[in-house]
Amino acid sequence: MEYTKKRRLTIKPKNNGLEDIYQHDLQMYDFPPRGELLLTEFEQLAKERLRLLQHVENNAVRTDLKTLEERKQNLSTALTKDGLKYYAHLLYAKSCNSPTETDLEYRRKDHISHFILRLSYCFESDNLSWFINQEVEFFKLRFSSLDKEGVEKLLNTHKIECQQITPEEKDKFREELHLSTSSARVKNIDVTEFYKVPFHKVTDLIRSRRVYLNQGIAFIPQADLVSLFASYFKKNLYDGMPEARMSVGRMYGDERITSCLKSLNNVADRISVVWTTDTTPVDKLDELSKTSYPLCMRILHESLKTHHHLKNSGRMQYGLFIKGIGVTMTDALSFWKTEFTKKIDSAKFDKEYAYSIRHTYGKEGKQTNYTPLGCPKIISSSVSAGEYHGCAFKHMDQNSLRQKLFNYGVPAAILYISAINEIADLAREQNYLGACTAYFKFIHKRMPDKLISHPNVYFAESRVILANNGTELENKDRLSQSGRFTSPGLASPSIGTPRNIDKGIGTPLRNTMTPKRDRGSMSSTKMGRTNMTPVRTTRATPKRIETHLNDDDIAQLMSEDI
Amino acid sequence: MEHLEHLADLLPTYYARLFPFPDYYRWLSYGNANTFSHREFSFTLEDDIYLRFQSFKGLKELELEIKRLLPFKIDIGAVYNVNPKDYHKGANFIPVERELVFDIDMTDYDDVRTCCSSTDICSKCWKFMALACKILDSALRCKRGIHCWVCDSSARTLTTTERGAVAEYLQIIEGGQYMKKKVNLPGDKIHHSIKRALEMIEAVFVPFCVEEQDILGTDERMENFLQIISDDDDRQELRALFGQYNSSKDRWNIFVKYIQNKKTTGDKKWYQYRHLIEEIMLQYAYPRLDIAVSKGLNHLLKSPFCVHPKTGKVCIPFTANTVDKFQPDNVPTITTLIEEINEFDLKDKTEQETYDLNAKKIKDYKKTSINKSLRIFQEFLWNLSNERKESRLKQNGKYSATFCA
Ligand SMILES: [Zn+2]
Known about the structure:
The complex is a heterodimer.
Chain A: H1 18-21, H2 39-60, H3 68-81, H4 85-91, H5 101-121, H6 125-143, H7 148-157, E1 163-164, H8 167-172, H9 174-180, E2 194-198, H10 203-207, E3 212-214, E4 217-221, H11 225-250, H12 255-266, E5 272-274, H13 285-291, H14 295-307, H15 312-324, H16 329-340, H17 346-352, H18 354-360, H19 375-379, H20 392-395, H21 398-407, H22 416-428, H23 432-444, H24 455-469, H25 471-481, E6 501-503, H26 517-521, H27 524-530, H28 551-559
Antiparallel strand pairs in A: 1-2, 2-4, 3-4, 5-6
Chain B: H1 7-18, H2 21-29, H3 33-37, E1 39-45, E2 49-54, H4 59-69, E3 73-80, H5 84-87, E4 95-97, E5 100-103, H6 126-140, E6 147-150, H7 153-156, H8 160-170, H9 192-212, H10 219-226, H11 232-243, H12 248-264, H13 270-273, H14 276-285, H15 291-295, E7 301-302, H16 334-347, H17 349-353, H18 357-366, H19 371-391, E8 400-403
Antiparallel strand pairs in B: 1-2, 1-3, 3-4, 3-7, 5-6, 6-8
Helix pairs in contact in B: 1-16, 6-9, 9-14
């Protein structure tokens, strides 16, 4: 798209042509806006769109909102409260055929603001996937508001590969269609229309086994058409990015626009990691796991200590977490090694595990600096037999969860039966963040100040509270009495106190984000340790494929869509 | 397990006389020389020296390098946009194509098999594999084994997202150490693909799992089983009922009766138990896939016809039709194969006199028990090349091979 240098908006005769351009409430954004725009409007539209997407994201992580209607209602309320009435309106728009001037104006704003954010988000892949995920989520919510006519109109105006099945086909596959389609969504096969689409256009439906699949063709009921449209929508967005990057290139001369675009993705307040900049010594982890770890990490820590082993995904989840709380790479290596070598010999450890630990610190392979995983990522992880990672509130069954909470003494003083019930009930209702917050509440005897959406935020919140309580001092006394700390300095209250905050959602960030402590850990005194084991030439460094992922696997693990 | 300290001494003969280079090349080139030259291979040499991003211009170069390096293990990676050997450090090095692969690790069955554990495998637990083969076969219309390679052109060009979708579609056992019930079927009905798998499992579940694996045969196994039942009262009652019977089969029957009774009596817990019997059968017998392997384009996987460095077993292809007869203990080892050649040569002295490596290569296979596997492999290659011919006219077709780890 071209934003011309002139700053005057000249909508000639009011709405002339707008009705032709904006025929539908729901847009696929497959053509860029034309015309001129005041810089102030440019900025305002962009900022409002960004706020919209932030609301969409906050809404999406609310696992307590069960039905689609609840989700939409919640989002609509938030948008209205934030002065974004036109987005609330669009959320429920049906695509009426005779739009009012207001309708058209809203559609125009929707169109332009989307394209401005494209310009801002098209460069960095983390930014881009965040942007696209939120846009797709908003699209799906809006799609659900369309009436039959609205859907048909959308289908007709865009080239979407999909073919309604014939009555003969329906008879032939009646039993399969009946079994493979949810009765909550399709009451009666006979009165439902089915469409044949290539399976790769509806991977979400395949993944969750919600449709009948035959020879690579998915048979989707009308009610699931949204998946098909969303997948086209998403592809459209990805396909439009090279063009957006070129547009930005053409605008380079204009300082005001480029600085505005830059400011947009800086303010994106996403689920943020809280990095702890102070070094946390590994011999404090046992204690910290009880006082300041979220349940998922406490379980991983405990399993590691008990079994002297963690499978790959568990090592990733826990390894990145301790990196985030300020364990240096050298310490992390010795921490894992101490545990693992209770079961395997040290040469095997160096050969099979050390690489991936250094890798998470950005010291091997592509040198990507990985960010600790956030809750959405952890909640959506897949956990198999013999594994302990994932979200405790999602991936533990009720009996195991209650038993674990009981063993962990939840809580020390209050009537623990009710506390366990409260947490377990929230987990059963799939309100995982709520359950985690409740766990925090019982451990700390107060609520966290921030919404818990990241294990490292949980940790940081906990450290702040404990530091203020002076609990830390008690701990220090207790620890020195037990003789585990010879130097009281080691238990300094500053340990684990969060300092800087950066943004990201558990996706790899490039080296720019490398916390400063990494460089410190490479000091010459500590380098000695890594030299203890002889290594062959670097070219042929031995490593085992079965036991650790390669770089690309890790990158993929970290960046998959939630 | 036999000792293989002398593997390095056997490999030259193996690669010179037994490894099927021409067929191997024919497979991985898929009728296109670039497909082969852009393919990543990785070699593990003696003493765990590991070489990634090897690639070869053609059959000759591959054969020469393998004979020169004598790899203890060969892994096959993806086909890249450029040749991996020269360009893997470049900025635009991306995988573009790979077979859709399924990997089943016998250790993942440790909580449901009672005959072996860890990497051990006997003819009893091979039945888990056999069942897995048949279930995947019907789901994918393909043939696979411990590693299943789906090789037709539409499968090779799937994206990561699409591979993930297929893998998750087939993955129904989920949950870690703290999730005792690992199969949860949503809704009132059972999806067509699971129903199909269940039909195959139901046919063998009692003789195989209940009786042979004896899943309710000891107190410990009963306890493991009962953990799947989340309701305390029902678990207690079932525990007491199990105590009244002695055999695994009787206990299973009384369990089935107990649950079905919930339906007939209109118990309000029935909804929670509506699929329980099916879910438990799936938990005990459905294929346990390592889906990370299937999802990635660039995951490396052990090549067929390479030799297991510890056991000396040769990784050989088989098909779903023959999987029941397949005996994991009878997989040819490098030692036996070489012995077979030698025995044969001894018997056939005239051949031994005019000993010429190149001229006799085909015959060398035929002297050994690897011959049958090679025929399977060649049949698969024939199907693949037919697919290519047909695809000029129309799309689709599914041909694949199976390789045993
Ligand atoms: Zn066995």
